[in-house]
Amino acid sequence: MLDISIIENAIKEKINTFEVRVKNEGSHYEIIVVSNDFSDLTPVKKQQLVYGPLTEFISTNDIHAVTIKTFTLKEWELQKKLL
């Protein structure tokens, strides 16, 4: 099983983030990334930006399944108010 901090650090090395949350849900990982690098990107481009640092782990089956949620800082602040 891949340590969550390894995934977090891989993302932080490639994306200018405000926050990265990784949750191991047994059979898959849930990842939340907050970055203004997502501004003006389509949802597909946002996903691709996060998948980039994870390709090594996916290709070795260290990550089998992943759910990715992306937010700009402004979107994240609004999202937190709704929680």
TrEMBL record:
SUPFAM superfamilies on file: BolA-like (SSF82657)
Domain of life assignment: Bacteria
TM ranges: none
Pfam families cross-referenced by the UniProt entry: BolA
Family: Belongs to the BolA/IbaG family.
Name this polypeptide is given: BolA family transcriptional regulator
Organism of origin: Paraphotobacterium marinum
